[in-house]
Write a structure and sequence with these properties.
This protein has 253 residues and is of the alpha+beta class. It has helices at residues 2-13, 24-31, 35-47, 64-74, 80-93, 134-140, 145-155, 168-181, 218-223, 225-241; strands at residues 21-23, 51-55, 58-61, 96-102, 107-114, 127-128, 184-187, 194-202, 208-217.
Length: 253
């Protein structure tokens, strides 16, 4: 059963904006699976709406994925108001503000806004570099180190700039610091001359369900670090506090 679930996840991961449509033969070759097994998986996914058949043996994501996406957003503290607040904060600070969460494979962008651009720098649902971003460092710091090591073994530590961390021991030290201080910071690891600070968005049990980051030119962020940190933590707390109206309850009997 677990092997089937793992294979199903790998099949779904192949469908991206760049490659939105796949055939059974191509999927089988990419994942090195028997064609009959691949056909069974893809036809089963189509039967429950997670894939849709286009022509012949070709498939693309099904509309039921959108339904799950809406359910996820409506059951969390992130909604349309979150997007507005992130955009307003970005404008107020003249900085890039991002909310991201760990999806088991890496950091996925929930929402993002830049004061300098009408369109987001990072599209919602797109993975963000984990080992070089403050968001990634904060969220990885919540994981067991053995899980992080497995991820590094699988994906490596690609260098994005001359400042990017490419030594696993340095990364380990950074994650320990992020966990102890409840904040992660990176300087020019993703984009040169840009620094980023990230804090957790915690549930009532203090478990971090996501993280919020503020990114700005390094000189400005260093000079206003404590101010940005206060604002980031205040915003993160308010997102959770305002998530559920008083007349509603989270309990389900």
């Amino acid at each position: 059963m677990l092997n089937t679930i793992d294979r199903t996840g790998k099949v779904l991961d192949l469908f991206t904006a760049e490659t939105p449509e796949w055939g059974v033969t191509a999927v089988a070759a990419r994942l090195q699976l028997p064609k009959s097994t691949t056909f069974d998986i893809m036809s089963s996914l189509a039967a429950i709406g997670l894939l849709q058949q286009t022509s012949g043996d070709r498939y693309r994501l099904g509309w039921r994925v959108l339904l799950f996406s809406r359910r996820l957003m409506s059951s969390s503290c992130f909604n349309a108001n979150t997007n507005r607040r992130v955009a307003a904060l970005s404008h107020h600070l003249s900085a890039v503000v991002t909310i991201g969460a760990w999806d088991g494979q890496g950091v996925v962008c929930i929402t993002n806004a830049s004061a300098d651009r009408p369109d987001p720098i990072v599209t919602r649902g797109v993975h963000i570099s984990a080992h070089t971003s403050a968001l990634g460092k904060f969220l990885m710091a919540q994981l067991p180190w053995s899980t992080v090591e497995e991820l590094v073994d699988r994906t490596g530590l690609p260098r994005l700039t001359e400042n990017s961390v490419v030594d696993v021991n340095i990364l380990h030290t950074q994650l320990i610091s992020a966990r102890c201080d409840d904040v992660a910071i990176e300087h020019g690891e993703t984009i040169l001359d840009q620094s980023c600070i990230a804090v957790g968005i915690h549930q009532r049990d203090r478990r971090a369900i996501a993280a919020l980051s503020i990114s700005a030119p390094t000189e400005r962020l260093l000079s206003r670090r404590e101010e940005y940190l206060r604002i980031a933590r205040r915003t993160a707390r308010s997102l959770v506090q305002n998530a559920v109206p008083p007349h509603r309850t989270l309990r389900v009997d």
